[in-house]
Predict the structure of SURF1-like protein.
Amino acid sequence: MHPAARRYRRGVHRYRFLLTRQWVILTLVAIALIPAMIRLGFWQQHRYEERTARNNLVSAALRAKPVPVERLTSPGHAVTRTERYRTVTATGTFDTSREVVVRRRTGSDGEVGFHVLTPFVLSDGKVLLVNRGWIPADGAQTAFPKIPAPPAGRTTVSGRLMADETTAASGIKNIKGLPDRQIMLINSAQEARRLGAEVLGGYIQQTAPAPKGGSPEQISDPGSEDAPLNYAYMIQWWLFAAGVPVGWWFLVRREIRDQEEATAENETEESEPATV
């Protein structure tokens, strides 16, 4: 046989193990992993871009100059992404007689309690919903809790404008049949029906004036989401995708080396003269 043909047959024989069941499965798994990891990398890239955009919007809103609340919202208005977290001001009077609490909200230490939602009646009779902050449950959540009073009389408040809460956005179910003056979600349309008044769309998280004695506990700034972590995951998945064929080829080379070593040992044993 021609030497070239012999070398070709030898080379083909070296890779025949790739047709075994074990190696066919391993190869198919490797082929499937590559596009899956690439897709996961693109998903992390999307999350990075989404979180970065959100962080930029929040940062811009928090830095923006405070404006009167009615410049950004009105009855029936849906607060937009660019309006959310804007600092707004309003002058009016707190109506504690129609105050409600929002169930299953956590404080800064993770304890479950209530958010205090107080109607704030403006000079023209319209109502702004003010989330004055968090208070502990202090026992069973079926009873209406004791709530520190807000400033009496005409006052000016500031706060971050927020969109109406929905089950779709928050994941919180709007349960019916709750104890009196307790709600699950802050929704201006629902509160307008309850109050029988014109209610500005959305609500505000009060930031000023600070409550006496520190209660209710005011809600802190939203902070930024960890977008760089998603960027790191994106790079990680793509490195994994690149590493799969490298790892597969490394295993192939190791298998060939093991076969060659085994063949060499067999040839050595066959060539050795038999001892009498």
User: Anything to note?
Assistant: Strands lie at 67-68, 87-94, 100-106, 112-122, 127-136, 155-162, 182-183, 203-208. DSSP finds five helices and eight strands in the chain.
